[in-house]
């Protein structure tokens, strides 16, 4: 839905060459134009307005001096710095532009009718007067010469497979009579046809087409040849085919013209010669002739050069150039250039620029050079209020197709309405004044501006019907037709137009005579009385440079201009003397675009800025580039919406950003990894923004093929919702959220405090039970403003904390209280919903309310019956669950009411209910609770049923393990309490908690059983207390003490065992022996002297000391040797892995099966094939027992050399050695004191030295074994939120060569603060 807008036009008419221009070629490297006339070749620079080179063709007798010669082709050859000229007499001339030498490189006696170079300028084809084609290389070496007229169809001849005759085939809309149609004779070419061949190449240079007049029929035929000049196909017979021919550069179609009996069309052919589509020219069948068709270089615009067939009174003819584009299979006439009837103003030749697709060159017969630069633009209305219809105008010849996207979205070429104008339209502009933005003005090719405004009367009635259908939009009415008073002969007197206010227009003058001058025109109604309204120039402002775009801000009134070199200017149009000033920042520094932009818009980012988008997709804010992949953008209100070449649509709030922040936001991947990023949305490839519907959430996009899509961008939706919620427009917000599937929790989460204060307003606005129920059923505990719809990171959310407690309960209670106070009968169903939706559903309360409705039916008109309420409740809750909850109320009337509405069989529930009714109330409730598996409640009711049911209660306690609850239901002095305590104790013994069982038994008087429990748990203190309480005789007490001591010795609790043996068994020798066995040297020595048993020192204590010293020394030596061995092996393993990794980095693809073992993405992290034999075995046994899994883990960390995780196993082994040696500090300290006391200084000194050296060696080795960064090295970032770039970046980060794994042990911490050395041994 884009129009072609003239950005710049340049006219050079100061020069007058010899003769009349016949053809020209554009030099892409210098921008000059090479013009050939019947006398000479002239190189003209249109920008400087001067002749660069000129060479005479008559002086060398290539052309006759009388001016009757003809140049049939001219081509610039940049590689040879020459220009090639072909004359009708048969000469091919090469003119060297650097040396100014003229050379005839070939001559054809029969003359030449056309010359065409291939797009790569490797080949040149010449058509001769004998109707032959000569193909030559770029060095003019002949390749082949063939005749144009061939009897054969070509290599692409269609194959007939014999599927019947034409008479038996289906003929579509032509009907069966088409089979009897006789072949119509081919009509000869038109009388005005010059009968010269036309040659055109495909864009890739592989094929070329030749249109020529067949000598037999006199009609034109098109033949397609390949690069080797071999005929490929011949066109079907086309009556009325004319001479113009042009192959679309993209290669799909060949354009030609055809004159039908009732119309004049541009037709398209495929390379096989068959017709494929057409469009009709807006002229009568005998009104014009097409002189040429020209595709631009990117195949988006087709130029049609036409000339009237009937001459005026003075023998003059009118000339036109039309620019056509296609979209959604419809051809639009975008621009019409009318050159009048003056033969000197008529174009002599027309050509598109080969490098700039939208630049059109033409040379008139009067030697005037015209250059037009076009640009794409979307003409949309710019209103920001709800009255603006989001209009978009599309030019189609003398029609303006207007789509009003607020009312309807119809795909082009359809529209909401079309405006028929008396002449072709060149420009459309909408009114910029607020409240009038639906009005538009159109500039026609004959120099008139037609103003359309909203109509009055019946058409404004929204209920008016047309043809039985309700009209949702009405075409504006023509208000005024202005004639523009401008003295300019060329087409497009105005090339840019803005409708500022009232009847004031701002335009830019058409063709500029100089390379660096332009005129701004403020147009207003003429005060002179005339039969036709006119616009005259109210003010004229000269601008240094060519203005290529203008934009206006309705908020500030600023008009910004952009010049062709990217300079930005501000036009002060509303002052007494309009003027143009530079665009400056706050410091007064002049700001310009680095590159010219094809689209501009004003916006406010802290202050007013000018946005610009270049044809290379770079987006600028003033002189700062903020993005480099933008395909389209639009500024709406406070938002910048743009589409990117990564197929996303971004929507950013400008008021929360700075220019730097905008640059960072657009460069940060757009949050593509965050599914809750409201600023980004994925769109179809190639989507472009058409417009935004003001005060709405709709964004209109156009796809590359032309169809439209409407999306509701999340950022626009949430902004609109937040605005509605802030202004408490709950119904509008609810409808929007419901339609666009936004979670309704946002209504509360946006501002809980305000919502709770406005519950009544919320209910009155919704005024729908279904809507209230929908809101309640969607409630959940999460805060959607932090999860689903977080505020953008650079904004501050308005969400305020609500009341303390669970959100769902708070909202349900608040709504229920308000509804009950407003009208509890009307909101009955919603009240039930509020009970059911609480975190702990209050089904009993809801059922009770339904029961009340049944018992006391309300008399209100809007009240809900009990049946309806129960039916709705069953919709919310599973019927079986509802039945059970009704049963839990112990109300049989309610149970029957629910059961009757359910699908249950009465035979299933009636006997059960009847049985319950016969039971005692407490036992009845016990039975119900047990049926509902509410065992605690059942136990509570059963405890009230008397002693006769205690056995049943005890069984229930044992089955459901309700011991603690049961103990609280009976008095502590009752036999039931004692029985429950004994049962609980048995259960605790089974659970290996014998000590707690003993406590229970002890307090309930079961001392003997308590003693057994304490003995079993080795709780010797409690056991001795119970034994004293029984009481036990002294001999049995001594035996009990010995039994307990044996258990404690087995548990390595030697000190406690010694206490029992000494104090209760009265056996000091056994007590001392136990202490010596446990290496408690000081306590053993105390008892020796306490009981005067010094003989034990020599017999037991000293030998034990020496033996302990020897074993400790041997253990230290073994641990030290093992530590050194593991440490040395770890260094070797690391060196091997680092070497292998470096070798693999130099190779492309490793072939060895252990390749991944040494890579940075090794098998340790990815579970790849390096550890396959281990990982496979682990997965095979992982479903067995935990014992097997532990065994597999131990096998995985094997110390066997060469295993994949040998380094990990070595680290674990070293850590265990350090831990075991470090925890010997207290034991060694005690042993050293004992050795020193009994004069074993030598042994003590050696032990102290050995232990100290071991500790020092391990402490020194810690930094070497646990290298720095081993634990902090980041693992590769993977997962659902990762991108390919982030994963590759994480793998490329330098990491230690050691294999990483989650089982890597942390470096052990040594307890250097523990004092163990004896200074007297130093």
From TrEMBL:
Domain ELP1 first N-terminal beta-propeller: 1-355
Domain ELP1 TPR: 923-1086
Domain ELP1 alpha-solenoid: 714-916
Pathway info: tRNA modification; 5-methoxycarbonylmethyl-2-thiouridine-tRNA biosynthesis
Keyword field: Cytoplasm, Nucleus, tRNA processing
Cellular component annotations (GO), alphabetically ordered: cytosol; elongator holoenzyme complex; nucleus
Ranges annotated as biased composition (Polar residues): 1271-1303
Domain of life: Eukaryota
One annotated GO biological process: tRNA wobble base 5-methoxycarbonylmethyl-2-thiouridinylation
Principal location class: cytoplasm
InterPro entries xrefs: A-sol_ELP1, Beta-prop_ELP1_1st, Beta-prop_ELP1_2nd, Elp1, HB_ELP1, TPR_ELP1, WD40/YVTN_repeat-like_dom_sf
Transmembrane recorded as keyword: no
GO molecular function: tRNA binding
Stretches assigned to the ELP1 N-terminal second beta-propeller domain: 394-690
Annotated localization: Cytoplasm; Nucleus
Gene3D superfamilies: YVTN repeat-like/Quinoprotein amine dehydrogenase
A family per Pfam: HB_ELP1
Family annotation (SUPFAM superfamilies): Tricorn protease domain 2 (SSF69322)
Low complexity: compositionally biased ranges: 1172-1185
The family this protein is said to belong to: Belongs to the ELP1/IKA1 family.
Biological function: Component of the elongator complex which is required for multiple tRNA modifications, including mcm5U (5-methoxycarbonylmethyl uridine), mcm5s2U (5-methoxycarbonylmethyl-2-thiouridine), and ncm5U (5-carbamoylmethyl uridine). The elongator complex catalyzes formation of carboxymethyluridine in the wobble base at position 34 in tRNAs.
Protein name as it appears in the record: Elongator complex protein 1
Native species: Salmo salar
Gene (name only): elp1
